[in-house]
Amino acid sequence: xxxxxxxxxxxxxxxxxxxxxxxxxxxxxxxxxxxxxxxxxxxxxxxxxxxxxxxxxxxxxxxxxxxxxxxxxxxxxxxxxxxxxxxxxxxxxxxxxxxxxxxxxxxxxxxxxxxxxxxxxxxxxxxxxxxxxxxxxxxxxxxxxxxxxxxxxxxxxxxxxxxxxxxxxxxxxxxxxxxxxxxxxxxxxxxxxxxxxxxxxxxxxxx
Length: 207
Prior knowledge:
It is found in: Bacterial flagellum basal body; Cell outer membrane. The chain is an alpha+beta fold and 207 residues long.
């Protein structure tokens, strides 16, 4: 009788050990080996990966804008684009900046600690590589009028930080729309100018 009880206990212990090892192996395999972000989100912190998911786009102070005069100039250029229906292209903004600025530092604002603007964006599309197409809406004040602008752009999932934060400079092929017209468009072959422009016009959102 004692022998049977011992064998039964050993059998139960073996089964429990097998189930535990199998569960850990299966979970680890799903999380670390799968290329499907849905599986990776089972055990890890959830990251947006589907249409309808939300992220927060954060705009930081740009090191390329050092004076209030530059802020005013960029803001006026943006307002003029809205009022006249013209379109600002990324490199167009370079004429409003000091000529000594390096073309390699357009993304340096990722290192700045001071956030000047946040907006919620929704995932509208996911391409075959897993990049997410984001759309965010925000009201600005132009004179006495409130205008809604739409900000769009693609982001790689690896650029999404903890808390589902996306730096504005990580948006690819970014655009700003107002009243059905594009008022700003990044150069496809250039680093993002969106963060620089948004940091300059951040005061338009504070009303």
